[in-house]
Amino acid sequence: MSSSTRRAPAILSCLFLAVCLAPLAGCGQEEEAERETLEPSPLPVTAAVAARDTLFEVIDGTGRIASVREQDLVSQIQGQVVQAPEREGQAVREGEVLFRIASGEQAALLDRAYNQYRSAEALYEFELENYLGDLTDEVSSMMRRTSGLQDAEVALAQARTQYSNAAVTAGFDGVVSEIAVRQGVRVYPGTRLGAVIDADDLLLELDLDERQLALCSPGERVYVTLPSLGDTVVVGSVRSVSPVVDPAMRAGLVTVEIPGMPNLRPGATATAEIVIATYPDQLVIPEEAVLIRDNREMVFVIGEDGKANWCYVTVGARGRGLVSVIDGVEESAQVITSGHYSLAHEAPVAVVN
């Protein structure tokens, strides 16, 4: 057999192997391309940097704005209202007459008391002129009683007081906050006519439960957020803490002094954060970065490779949306604050703050 005849089977074998291996090589390239296609895309998250700062531990509460000075205007006599403020919000001065009540009966009583006083006074003067003895203080006092002058003076003072009650005045500079009756309305003793408030001197009233109440003291700093003014934040201080707890509500009143603000009105709602402790130089992160997994507190820290690393942490004080980290996170580390509730360890992420 010639050498060319012996090489023929070998060549055919090589060709057969090449044909068989070619599809296998194509499958490997397709699988590699598919694996590249299935590589997960980075998940969008927000993140914050762990940094050192002062942490304020606070008590949260919600209350209402109130005026430091409020005056209820009440009728002392019976009669018809002949004068009333024109509108709510009207500025008034101390001593200004706001309501006036016409009462013919009170005017008649005053007139009668005045006539009785003049008669008693004339009798007293007549007795003085005709007294022949020494006119001592004791004698003068006796004549005031016997002439009826002493009783007439008391009756006249009472009648004048009753008559003056027809005019209801403002006790301080302020604004009319309520008009309960208008001109022409008949009122009686005890009828509420309206109210005056001091719109410039305001405070915040909070009802706190007994546990929170025990942690509050006058003078503590308070951060007050005012929704009616676009969530403006002002700094106030605790003015007073109720010395008793309401047994029905198990709560007590805390009042907070706040600075005057244009367009801030009594009755508006406000939230307060009362600072009960201060911790300087703390490593802090946003409170929303901390999650609970396996009954332990943890955070996701973004590594240099852009992946989220699951880290257990030991936390300390909390306050004003921050939490201090004692162990588990290094300073300047990026911790994920949103988009992390279903995040897996070493998942690729993209910060979209």
Name a few traits of the molecule.
353 residues, alpha+beta, conserved putative lor/sdh protein from methanococcus maripaludis s2 fold, Elongation Factor Tu (Ef-tu), domain 3, OB fold (Dihydrolipoamide Acetyltransferase, E2P), 3 domains, 6-stranded mixed β-sheet, 6-stranded antiparallel barrel, 5 helices, 22 strands, 26% helix, disordered N terminus
Question: What is the compact description of this entry?
Answer:
The protein is α+β, with helices and mostly antiparallel strands and 353 residues long. The chain is 26% helix and 41% strand.
Description:
This protein has 353 residues and is α+β, with helices and mostly antiparallel strands. It contains five helices and 22 strands. The strands form four sheets. Strands 16-17-18-22-1-21 form a six-stranded mixed sheet, with no helix packed on it. Strands 2-11-14-13-12-15 form a six-stranded antiparallel β-barrel. Strands 3-10-8-5 form a four-stranded antiparallel sheet, with no helix packed on it. It is elongated, with a radius of gyration of 43 Å. It starts with a helix and ends with a strand. The N terminus is likely disordered.
